[in-house]
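Provenance

Sequences were taken from public entries as deposited. Structures were produced by running a predictor on each sequence independently, with no templates supplied. The record for Alpha-E domain-containing protein from Aciditerrimonas ferrireducens is shown for reference.
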Amino acid sequence: MTTTALPAHRLEQPLLARIADALYWLGRYLARAEGTVRVVQAYHDALFDLPVGAELGWTVLLRLSGTEELFRDRYQPLLGGEQLPDAGPGEDQVLPFCLLDLSNPSALRSSLRAVRANARTAAALLPMEVAAAVHDLWQIAQDGPVAVPDRARRLAWLGDLLVATAAVGRVAEETLGRDQPGVFLGLGRALERADLTCRVLEAWAPALERTADPFAAIHRATVLRALHAEAAFRRGGWRLQDPLAVPLFVLLEEAFPGSVRSELGTCLTLLEALPFPCRATAALLQAGTVLDDAVSTAEALLPSVVAPAVRTALTGVHGQLTQLWELPASPSGTSATASRPRARRVPVGPRRLRVLHRSRYRYEEPASASTTEAHLRPRATPRQRLVAHQLTIDPPPATTTPLLDPFGNHLVVFSVDEPHRTLEVSASSTVELLPSAPPASSPPWETVRHLLQLDRHAAVLEARRFVPGSRKAPASPTLAAYAAESFPPGRPLHEATLDLACRIREDFAYLPGSTTVSTPVEEVFDARRGVCQDFAHLAVACLRSLGLAARYVSGYLLPTAGTPVDPRAQASHAWFAVFVPGAGWLDLDPTNEPLVSDHHVTLAWGRDYDDVAPLRGTVRGGGTQRLEVEVLVELVDD
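Predicted structure for Alpha-E domain-containing protein:
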């Protein structure tokens, strides 16, 4: 693929407003024309699939473009002033209006004429390949008046137009790349596609809402074909039988490039390449309009408990857009480089901690062989970076295999084949930690529960693994009732979970030695005492009892004044994390100050302790064994 990039000295110069505007609208009208073709093709396909009398009528194409009133004003005089028939206008009236009528600004031919006009305005910056592709597209458009009246010729003509519009977009992407002209053209295409998604959902809403309609699956498939999303929908494992699947997929699915969330994300990527934020004002206003349409559509088509989650997901991306460009226009005389957007994060230096973890097994008799799994390497997280790690095993193992476990944790499996009375495993790790903060907002907890059941986004699918109860953190009505005090209807998830962590800290006594690693969480709840591991299991079980995603986290804690530390269990300090859509995982420590920050070293996470035990294994022989653990967590001075 070849790219034509502007010279470096021109990249810092803003485009003329007239040229930037032409490129932006070239992208929009190009995507509008392509979308119109796909919609009409999809509707024709639906006519073949639906029996006579079950189709929606041709007014759906008028609703799609918002031209019902214009159509009525345009065509009633042609009918001698008579009212349109009760069944609505037919194919012979609607399609010429939607495809050819230049008095209709949303007509396909009007969009193609606008593509040519804007290409001419921006001709000085468009490569010859783009101009040639636009010319070919316009030539094909001229066959419309002959082709549209005949259905067979119409479908062939639409197929030719689809190939030609896709060719213009492909050539533009290949030749313009991420230079300013390519950015403005790409912004137009992304926003128009997102807008089309909202309009298609709204136009087909009556059919999508018919839960008892035996042909509902055909209507949903028509929506997917109109948005070129059917193949991606099926690959993702979504089901047409689910009435919420199509709206959620085309609004939120990041794996589908045409979803509203993906297109707004594309806008964010493109805007970051612009040197002048003032040039993005129009695009941001359009993005805000698209966002409002998407949220309105979600609230109309989705249950009241699901629509807020869609709003949160979409506004999260749009919030990044507006935050990125909340800078004033450059004052006169300043350089373009100085006016580029900069991150507003207050610089905070990382805290560096060193962890020394030594475990020694002593056997009453010589053990002939042993196999051990070790979760002792801290994992990387957004707030934690591993600087150094060393694992030492004595006696030296015959085999050592580093792996990733099913949850992405670092795991080392090693075997000692020679007779031995002791087995010593020492891990030395150095990490850098950043402080963390809870999210400023989160959806109501009931909305998150429904989102976990319906959303197919990769992060939600991963979080769904932590919803069912496990052996050490089972769901139960008793724990659901205890958690309910912190989770009244409509309360934001992060506030409710923080309240739950504080209540566990107040209601349960920290009493080292009162439990073992095998003590059931029900006994801990009844006795109201335990250690950090027990409180983490309790919090996870409470959240799962409400249908939320929660995971058990093992790690280390830098002791501070007033912090309860169990010397016997210091190697396996534990807390929990809850999944917050749009913000990721929120870690909370019900044993200490609730918010996990730069004094907690994350080792591994799983469903409960059994998934992430620091050491576990089997030994042949050895008789009675005794385990000694030594842990030191210290702050490393610069």
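The domain at 351-430+624-635 is CATH 2.60.40.2250 (Immunoglobulin-like).
Residues 571 and 631 are 6 Å apart (CA to CA).
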